[in-house]
Design goal:
Length: 698
């Protein structure tokens, strides 16, 4: 499945006991630094560990990620959890089983090669020995390093991997108590933070007398431009927070806000440019607006400072980087800060979870000995967390006389995608800037190519163009805080590339599928394209410009992850309506087929929502308060019929499925809408307003 190369996670956390422990009879505790965000990763990791230990998956318990106990695997992002943490756990589990058998061999005075494992029991020549993993665990040195020298199982020997097993985290969530919002600590205060209405807003006045008359018992905590309200009664503090504009006054300080610098435009040139004067060409600009994370449950965190140690519960994607930045902000040694992950109600990237954690930490330090619980309001969740970056991509391309692309140039301009806690050496937490305006990032760069890029993600087309130029530039002029949102730049970049491919196919007078295939030597991408086309009955029988059409698109996520092709069927009348989606994906070995399907289809539904509806309206370089009425998302009644097919060879390593859909689905919808309408729509979202604009300007 993965070979025995040591993943970075093992290199950073080599001690075997950091991954596997047998402290509780009958079960094996497995630790991962990757966290459950609703993607089902705990279930997949349990299946991987179970196979390598020759146990039933029900004997595997995935421990909560905890900076005191878990391996530090950085951030759970980029669809890499199965690739990285799964590979690490497989190696650790294999070595743990070998060590346990070696301990059994020593006790029995036999060769370890004569022993085998059956659901935790040790057998000698097929007969039970009376020894099991748990009785042998004290004989094993759990401080030994995972070396990768112990062979892992062959693909054909997997039992749990490849099964569609139910999510192990769902029972508690269905019955209550499964989310961070359900946590309650003894002697706990409820807290709401009155957030700055725009970046670096100065807190001028707090009318505490008015507040106390209207809400007696509310405790006010103010530190520079950070303002929090605390009370025993959650409803009282909630109502007081909702009326903050009546007792709080903010002002803008001229010159305080300064845009970050960047490293300038990054250019990539593949192949020699060979422009042909007078040849057919396109020059088009595609764009998307800011997008909110729009989680159903607002961000939440708990914290407790006691005996000089701070403990924080957070649904952050990166508890270790978060710990470092909380310690930095509060002047604590990182060893005095512990962050424990608790499940949130949906996470699509860098949302308000980390901000809420720092909020809680600040208040807990002020109220030493009291546990505090911070929950954001709906308006804060939508408008005050980091947003998905607004982007544009300009494509200039020429055809040769044979109807093939002769030259291709794409220029991407984007707000930053990488402003997570600690990135670039900056704190990157909202309340850190409220405490000290000098914490505003001074320089912001794109994610490196090794991490898949941010604005540059998927800006290089998967096609075989003879001359291919890519330019990516960050725009940091706006004070709107932007950071990582599912798929990062791939959403707009794939939309732009695949829209331009359709425009070029029209120019060449060729079917869009055939046009793509003539420029595509990647066999796995060809396979998913042909698969999606076959499923949908491509090209369909709807004439262009008559209100209904199919659209097709494909990409390989980050140009090194999963392949996915999509065909969308849309109807266009007063608005664009998505009716069906056919998805064909290659994610390598399927650890949990239904889990992978959920990831692919969940991503497709979110991509449809972004493409058709979602846009954060910015006014005067500020994000005004809004709620669901001002930010429509795809409704359950609008979810299209979806059919998904996997074309995976189990011999290929598993690839993350969570972010493969966003770009191809957006592009397939855009291509279908443009064909149904008879004119090109290039700006996302494809709302009724933009539909009218397109018709008026045609």
């Amino acid at each position: 499945m993965i070979g025995n190369a040591l993943p970075k996670s093992i290199q950073d956390n080599p001690e075997l006991g950091r991954w596997i422990s047998l402290d509780r009879a009958g079960v094996v505790a497995v630790s991962s630094g990757k966290v459950e965000l609703g993607q089902g990763i705990l279930t997949a990791l349990a299946q991987i560990a179970a196979d390598e230990l020759a146990l039933g998956p029900e004997r595997i318990v995935l421990m909560p990620a905890d900076t005191d106990r878990s391996p530090d695997e950085g951030i759970t992002a980029g669809s890499q959890s199965v690739e990285v943490s799964g590979a690490s756990i497989r190696l650790a589990a294999a070595q743990a089983q070998a060590a346990l058998l070696q301990a059994a061999a020593a006790r029995l005075g036999v060769d370890a090669g004569s022993l085998s494992c059956v659901d935790g029991g040790v057998h000698l020549d097929g007969e039970a020995t009376g020894l099991d993993f748990w009785s042998l665990a004290p004989d094993v040195d759990w401080r030994q390093h995972v070396t990768g020298d112990v062979p892992v199982k062959r693909v054909g020997d997997y039992a749990a991997v490849g099964e569609s097993r139910p999510r192990i985290d769902m029972a508690q969530k269905r019955s209550g108590g499964g989310f961070i919002h359900d946590l309650a600590l003894p002697n706990m205060l409820h807290v709401r933070v009155v957030r700055q209405p725009f970046r670096l807003a100065r807190l001028v006045e707090v009318d505490e007398a008015w507040l106390q008359r209207r809400f007696p018992g509310i405790q006010v905590l103010r530190k520079q431009d950070f303002l929090a309200l605390a009370a025993e009664d959650e409803f009282a503090v909630h109502v007081a927070h909702s009326e903050a504009e009546k007792f709080v006054r903010w002002e803008k300080v001229p010159g305080l806000w300064q845009p970050a610098t960047t490293s300038g435009e990054k250019r990539t040139v593949l192949g020699a440019a060979a422009p042909a004067a007078g040849s057919a060409s396109i020059s088009a600009r595609y764009s998307r607006a800011h997008i909110a994370h729009a989680s159903i449950g607002p961000s939440c965190a708990l914290a407790h400072f006691d005996a000089g140690r701070l403990t924080v519960w957070s649904h952050s994607q990166g508890i270790f980087p978060l710990r470092g930045q909380i310690a930095r902000c509060l002047g604590l040694d990182p060893s005095l800060v512990r962050v424990i992950h608790a499940h949130g109600s949906g996470c699509y990237g860098h949302n308000g979870a980390d901000d809420a954690a720092l909020d809680a930490a600040i208040v807990a330090m002020e109220l030493s000995g009291r546990a505090v619980r911070v929950q954001w309001s709906r308006q804060d969740e939508l408008a005050r967390g980091p947003l998905g970056a607004a982007m544009s991509a300009e494509v200039d391309a020429e055809l040769d006389g044979a109807g093939r692309v002769a030259s291709w140039k794409i220029s991407v301009t984007s707000e930053p995608h990488a402003q997570r806690p600690g990135f670039g050496g900056h704190v990157n937490l909202s309340s850190a800037e409220a405490l000290d305006a000098t914490r505003l990032p001074g320089k912001v760069d794109d994610l490196p190519d090794a991490a898949g890029g941010g604005a540059a993600r998927n800006a290089v087309a998967i096609y075989d163009f003879p001359a291919h130029q890519v330019a990516v530039r960050l725009n940091t002029q706006s004070r709107i805080r932007t950071s990582s949102l599912r798929s990062l730049g791939a959403h707009l970049n794939v939309f732009a590339i695949e829209s331009a491919m359709d425009e070029l196919a029209d120019l060449a007078g060729v079917d869009p599928l055939d046009f793509r295939l003539r420029h595509l030597s990647d066999d796995r991408c060809r396979a998913v394209l042909l698969g999606a086309a076959e499923m949908s009955g491509w090209p369909g029988n709807h004439p262009a410009g008559e209100g209904r059409a199919l659209g097709i698109a494909a990409a390989r996520y980050k140009n090194k992850g999963a392949w996915l092709a999509a065909v969308a069927e849309v109807a266009v009348d007063e608005e664009v309506r998505l009716e069906r989606l056919w998805l064909c994906a290659d994610v390598g070995l399927l650890v949990n087929p239904e889990g992978a399907r959920s990831q692919i289809e969940g991503g497709a539904i979110q991509a449809a929502s972004w493409t058709l509806k979602e846009e954060v309206k910015v006014e005067d370089d500020r994000v005004p308060d809004f709620d669901w009425s001002g930010y429509p998302i795809l409704r359950f009644s609008e979810i299209p019929e979806i059919e998904t097919r996997f074309v995976s060879d189990p011999a290929n390593p598993p690839l993350g499925a969570g972010e493969a859909s966003q770009g191809p689905v957006a592009a397939a919808i855009g291509n279908a809408a443009s064909r149904a309408l008879g004119l090109r729509m290039r700006d996302l979202p494809l709302t009724r307003e933009r539909l009218v604009d397109a018709l008026m300007s045609a």
